[in-house]
Amino acid sequence: MADEIGAVVAAAVAEVESDRTRLMDVIQAVQRRVGHIPQEAIRRVAEALGIHKVEVEDMVSFYAYLDREPKGRFRIRLARTPVSLMNGAAAVAKAFETATGARLGTTSPDGAFTLEWTADLGMADQEPSALINGTVVTALTPGDAPAIVAALRESHLSGARPILPDQQGIALPRAKVASNLVQSGPVVFRQSARGAGLRAALTASPDEVGQAVTKARLRGRGGAGFPTGLKWKLCRQSIGDEHYVVCNADEGEPGTFKDRVLLTEIADAVFEGMTIAGYALGARHGLLYLRGEYVYLFRTLQDVLQRRHELGLLGRNICGHEGFDFDIRIQLGAGAYICGEESALIESLEGKRGAPRDRPPFPTERGYRHQPTAVDNVETFACVTRILEKGADWFKGFGTRESSGTKLLSVSGDCPHPGVYEVPFGITVNQLLDLVGSPDAAFVQVGGPSGQCVAPKDYGRRIAFEDLSTGGSIIVFGQQRDVLEVARLFTEFFVEESCGWCVPCRVGTTLMKNSLEKILGNRGTLGDVRQLEALAGTVTRMSRCGLGQTAANPILTTMRNFPQAWEARLQPEAFLPRVTLGEALAEATRVQGRAPVPEEEGA
Amino acid sequence: MSGKSFTFTVDDVVVEASAGQTILQACDAAGVYIPRLCYHPELEPAGHCRVCTCSVNGRFSSACTMPASPGMVVESDTPSLNADRRTIIEMLFAEGNHFCPACEKSGDCELQALGYRLGMEALPFANLWPHRDIDASHPDIVLERNRCVLCTRCVRASRLLDGKSVFGLEGRGVHLRLNVDAGCLGETALSAADKAAAVCPVGCILIKDHGYRTPYGRRRFDAEPIGADIEAKRAPRKG
Lengths: 603, 239
Prior knowledge:
The structure holds two protein chains of two kinds.
Chain A lengths: L1 H14 L7 H12 L4 H11 L3 H8 L13 E6 L2 H5 L2 H12 L5 E2 L5 E6 L11 E3 L2 E3 L6 H14 L23 E3 L12 H7 L3 H10 L12 H10 L6 E6 L8 H8 L1 H15 L3 E6 L7 H13 L16 E6 L9 H8 L23 E5 H13 L1 H5 L9 E8 L5 E6 L4 H8 L6 E4 L5 E3 L18 E5 L5 H15 L5 H18 L5 H17 L3 H5 L2 H9 L1 H5 L13 H4 L1 H7 L5 H4 L2
Parallel strand pairs in A: 1-3, 6-12, 7-8, 7-10, 8-9, 11-15
Antiparallel strand pairs in A: 1-4, 2-3, 4-5, 11-12, 13-14, 13-15
Chain B lengths: L4 E6 L2 E6 L4 H8 L22 E4 L2 E4 L10 E3 L3 H17 L14 H8 L16 E2 L5 E4 L8 H9 L5 E4 L6 E4 L24 E3 L12 H4 L4 H5 L2 H4 L1
Parallel strand pairs in B: 1-5
Antiparallel strand pairs in B: 1-2, 3-4, 3-5, 6-7, 7-10, 8-9
């Protein structure tokens, strides 16, 4: 075993030329080949890269998809989100428990299956979904579990240590991700020829390309809406040995899946936007950080890169342009929502835990490998390609003054046609709900858990950076849904995904969850709500990065927009303890084998 | 060392700073105390505790990481910020297992001293009561993780000042814990003379056989509140 681990580590370290910043690739290779990251591998990786064991453990222990203990040959990770639960994920989970013999959160006695919940997989339009090793299965029903488990058992009989079942030619039932582009629009999804935007860019100077993006008033599509042209200008002005272009394909906001659709349908336009950025910024290297859940796209994307190389759209002297060299590497993530935050993403790219950095300095000044770096969203790069194809004025012709162009919205939940819709910025929530066929929605989550819970009184508001800003997640909830139950699930999500670096987010998210559970357990009073509101304010103000600063939004926006839902949960007493006296004494009662005398119970 | 000097204001006090200084460094030199926990003057700032968060030109930033710049308007000593700081200290008390009356560090503990300075009374949150390991394997040093506040002072000191990287972080979120570069502390290269063994703000890293050399009542924060040494630099000018 130790010899095998040694060989795996040696090969993985050689593959990355002993580059410490590629620790993620080395560790993922160990996980793939060994099935987990044993202590022996950590020791050898540290030795081979010339770093301390404690540094390797720091990184490995951070990511949800890296295991330090042996797990089942097949990891079945079921998405646990409001939408998956609405669509019956609990029953699917039960069916998998029965079929595998593993209870949720454990490994089956035969060591074949580990069954667990996971966060949103980027499949909100086809829930319930699951990630089985690297394969995504979607639109599950309880009836699918036995067939899937049988197929997995069969693939195991072939002997090898399976990572992606499809590598062994075993087709899993339901192993299909529907693209679900429901409404294509005139900008991002317009028909266009591969290379047209890039060739147009190369007829202009790098400065002029940057100016075109500025003139188009393009803003970052990840949700923050920072002007892309300004970001590029700041990056270009920064002095460094290298400049880097990074594409953030770590879309982890629950309810978002538009980057999945973009990378499935028009990956060429995304890579082309990165190449155009490389030209504008004088960068030679681009990196696309792909969320671990989308590993199933990895090979297809590599193929697209390969084709672009063959066509002279990547590599040396691109399109015959002397001296313009640009290449793109895909870095696979390993299950951490925080890595969608640009500075955490850079840390992860450098083979470290995905903890955000303090700013300043901003990535445009000191980013990847401490060099000037422009990090932009998948959709932003696709927009860049379109701007260069058709011109800034054409692009500005769509949307509003503050928010030019169109936006891809990932629509899910209680709606008849979930999927991606390309709509012009400025569309009202009402118009959108009519479009997706859910005019009677009780509430709409705009921008995912970190966004806002919007009530019908605000359905006249517009989706745009100047009003309701969203990276693309739109979750529709019907009349039968409980707004506070959704807030609870979202708060749990932030507890799971807090990186832990700073106190207000690390501790505050758990304290908020505990308080919310007390209130939802009908033991909350007005004092609890007031205290929760104050706590939520502290978490918002004092947290270090956007995750913590928005982690209280499920609580704060429902307090603001649905006060009646909170009031309905309150008890009239001035104070109620979190547990009853009986619950507090339960353990003692059990140990002593006798119940307290009735008088003591009543307190 | 100093480049051009300039001024900015903190709660209407004009503070002089030089290029490259953070808000906290400039304020310390000027005798304006901003409460802080994870910051240590000999270590690069890490921004963990957020206790030093101020309003900087209307935006919240940690004073330990934010470079001072000319004309900056900083608010620090406001009721709202001090309430937020107190809440953070309360969070730390709820997160770990802190029993001040039974702790060797009582009176010399920065967490406890901040609690007093910021007016913390009863803990408003239910304790999380985590299970934390104690590591007494080292002949001279004990690691009492129940009291760890994850400030990473020891991590930074060991890496940058001692050149040993004895400490590191492990896990994420509320499961984050202080890790050591071996099976236990006794197997690491840590020495009681290391900087990493001396920078702990709480009673987590303790030198053995030293616990009660200074009796209760005569310790650092028994005499005056935390931050008084910094404020003393400014006091003469007041009078």
